[in-house]
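Researcher: Hi, I'm a grad student and pretty new to this. My advisor asked me to get structures for two proteins we've been looking at. I'm not sure of the right format, so I'll just paste the first sequence and hope you can take it from there.
Model: That works fine. Here's the first sequence with its structure tokens right after it:
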Amino acid sequence: MFNFRFENIWSSYLRPSFVSLGILVAGLMAVGVSGFFLKPILSAAVFVPFAYFAYKYLSKNFGAGTGSGKNINHLRGAAMVGGAELDNLVIARYGKRQTGDLHIAGIRIPREFETRGFMFAGAPGTGKSVAITSMLDIIYQRGDAAFIADRSGIYAARYYNPQRDIILNPIDARAHEWSPLAEMRSEYDSETIAKSIIPDAPGDAAEWNHYAQTILAGILLHAWRAGLNNSAITRLAQRADMAELKEILADHAGIGLLQNEKMFGSIRGILATYTIGLARLLPQAGRDGFSLSAWVHEQPAAFAFFPYLSDQMKPMRGIIAALADVYADAVLTLPPDANRRLWLVLDEFASLGRVDSMENFLTNARKHGGCSILGMQALSQVHSLYGRDNATSMLSSISTRLTLRAPDAETAEYLSRGLGDKQVVRTMRSGSRSSSKQGGSNTESWNQQIATERLVLPAEIMRTPDLVGYLQIAGDLPVGHIRLSLPPQRPDAAHAFTPRAAAPTPTPEPAPAPELTPTPDATPENENPLDGLEL
């Protein structure tokens, strides 16, 4: 039925009429001016475009001629604007001082939202790295601290300064000598570090991962007490037999898991899987090595890079996840400070392995100055790694999101729901015209329909061009339809990756010759055995 509320009458009828009338008046004024100087034919040429645009505007809102027309007006729910308009709304709402210097696609981000998390979702090549780089350019200039998992070393090449920054990939020649033993300050830390290396697992694997954590915690505690190094940890975790482990875990809770050889075989399999990266650590590093948590507590104006190449992903993903977990835990132990900024930057984070403290960091790091930038490709990867419920809780903690082209229908559906629904009213006209000998007649009717629909359909997200996306900023601001710009080109600051020279394999010393024991028939010491031999 027709709704006689003034706002509906204004938006559906009066406003289109006034706009169209204004277009026609402008056209007539243009004709008057042109007619004074130009010939009538040129005056008509000036008026025709104005009349055309007036016709199109009326057709859009009312329909034209016989048939039907409709006018769609937004009532409530999610709304979309262009990038420039969204930036103006941010400034109007928060002011230039509070918006700070961080921006995405030219849209300024209020400083209070920096600690609420950023997620860039999209298929490879859609613009996630472009958006991350535009943010890191500013973060680096500020002097904020950051831990960056750096696929292909693109960020190390752009920013790395050996006088200020650190490299953590142990097979990079520039790397610091990190050891899990250096993160321990007391015996109780062995359990925390063990969970960083062997994270909790979803589903049925949770119990077995816990067993492996217990054994590894005992190994770390023994190595820390005895002043051992990375090489010893690797050997004990991967190759030591049950008898040796029973000896070093005699006073540890892990001793109870070493009573059944078949059970220990299953635990050893998990230990070997998660500690494969430990074999890449510098073997001599131990409790006196580099400590990432101590570096965080020093609050440096620096970046910690873990640059890695594609073929290093499988052996290194556990170490990357462990270091990210150590970093996140260290930030959470800092005193609260609203002005501090320490960034956790993980592009394609679901491919890096599970970071055990990720959910806790996303939920609670805000008051400590912790900020996160996560890149996500497919939702199924996150569900597989963290479990559906934990993944849902974790992702819901992130307030600012950039939605780029999705690689699959499940991810597109999730992102579409995240962009929200809108409620619209459609004012529709239907009419007919007839003629007869007695004359013609026109009939028309109007009705309004209220509908709820997606702001952006999943199919639209799957067809979005590269570098084009939808930006959601925390709060009640509308969604911005944006286009990313490539970051400015500049000379590389460093090599993306510098391989460490392989340590030379020591040449084994020759075994000593066995001593000969004289026999009773042996030749006397001073007698030549060749004497008397005829040649």
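Researcher: Oh nice, that was easy. Here's the second one.
Model: And its structure:
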Amino acid sequence: MQIRNLFDDDQGVSPVIGVILMVAITVILAAVIATFVLGLGENLSSSAPQASFSFDYDSSATTPTNTTLGSGGALTITHDGGDTINSANLYIKDSDGNSVTDSYAEHFSGAGTTGVDVSAGSSATVRVDGGDTVRVIYQDDSGSSATLNEWTGPA
């Protein structure tokens, strides 16, 4: 047998490639199934809602009267668009971690109790100090949270 013929002989290549592909597909399929069986797949599907909030600060305003975040001007937070979010899952916190309330449902116009949906056009007004950083935070029922938007006031 000549060495030259070994390089030109393609017999046996096709079955080897077939076996390698079948093993690769089996490994990938097993990894996907294991992810969901072990509960890791649940975290992949839950994500924070996509919503846009705008901020309007009035340093001369004296209302509302809450002073949890500060005693400066009034910060109006408006839901501009995106997903509708249950108000019980929304929080307003400053850079020190202080929260306006447990949730800020009562601060949204037309949302007097927790559990009300906050949609585009809803707004909340809170008192803050000028240089504060204020975050709108979404927290789901399992305790996972995500910052939806952030505002830093003038010093």
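Researcher: Is there anything I should tell my advisor about the second?
Model: You could mention this: Residues 13-37 form the longest helix (25 residues).
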